Amino acid sequence: MRAGDDSPLWKKLGWFVLLWIAGVSAVMLIASILKLAMAGVAS
Q1: Cα separation of 11 and 14, whole Å?
Q2: What's the rounded Cα separation, in Å, for the pair 1 and 5?
Q3: N- to C-terminal Cα distance for the chain?
């Protein structure tokens, strides 16, 4: 096994994990903003 053969796979996994974390945090951020907006409208 050479490092060159493993590198692309690790890079793909790394990008997938980064995109997944970014997507989850973005969804949570939007959800919290919507909650604050709804609370502001309700009050």
Answers
A1: 5
A2: 7
A3: 63
CA geometry: angle 20, 21, 26, nearest 5 deg = 100
| pLDDT tens, position by position, 1-43 | 565 666 788 889 999 999 999 999 999 999 999 999 999 988 7
How far is 10 from 3, CA to CA, in rounded Å? 10
pTM above 0.70, yes or no: no
Helix (H, G, I), strand (E, B) or coil at 8: helix
Distance CA(43)–CA(12), nearest Å, equals 46
